[in-house]
Every structure is written in C-alpha cells, then in structure tokens.
Design a protein that fits this description.
The protein contains 2 helices and 5 strands. By secondary structure, it is of the alpha+beta class. The protein has one domain. The protein is globular. The termini are far apart.
C-alpha cells in the first residue's frame, strides 16, 4: 500500500508541476503581459498595436514573435505598417532586428 501511495504522490507532484508551468506559460502569452514586458524594458506600450492575439518570447536571447489578428497601419510622425507577424529582439530600452514592420516617411 505504501508503494501505491508513493506513486500517487509522485503523480500529483508531477501534475502540479505541469499545471503550474502551463498556467505561467498561458499568463505570459496574453497581450496585456506583452505590454507589461515592454514597460519592464523601458519602452512605451504604444510601439505595438492593440490587436495582439498571442506572442512568444525567448527569455535568454530576448527574441520575440508577436501575432496580430490582422495587418494594420498606424500614423506616428510617419506611417508604420504592421504585418500579422512581427519579430525582433528585446533588450532594455530598445528593440532590434525587427521584421514584419515597415515605416514610410511622409513628405509634404
């Protein structure tokens, strides 16, 4: 009986570990947490449109991938176009190696 109890306990510990990793992963994938991630890296949240559906982040390299529900354009000092998939590398105070975005200067 003690052997079965030990197996049950091991399974419960394993299940709890898997669930906690899944919960942390799910929380990290919400668009709100991407904006929090930008703030934590000293960047404004307005760098990325509000239509984020999901994102991934490699915490070691800072490499990220943001998924938008549709491509869009936003006007800042110039017009910036966002594809549905934007990738780059996040470090404190800057984003480098961007793809999936393009800016066009407006000449008057």
């Amino acid at each position: 009986m003690q052997m079965g109890s030990r197996k049950s306990r091991s399974l419960l510990v394993l299940l709890a570990g898997v669930l906690s990793v899944f919960a942390a992963s799910s929380a990290a994938q919400s668009s709100d947490s991407f904006y929090s991630l930008l703030r934590a890296h000293g960047l404004p949240i307005g760098l990325v449109p509000q239509n984020i559906t999901n994102f991934t982040l490699d915490e070691t390299s800072g490499r990220f991938e943001v998924y938008l529900d549709r491509s869009c354009s936003v006007k800042f000092e110039s017009e910036v176009h966002y594809e549905t998939n934007v990738t780059g590398t996040l470090t404190y105070g800057q984003i480098g190696g961007l793809s999936g975005m393009s800016a066009q200067d407006l000449f008057l």
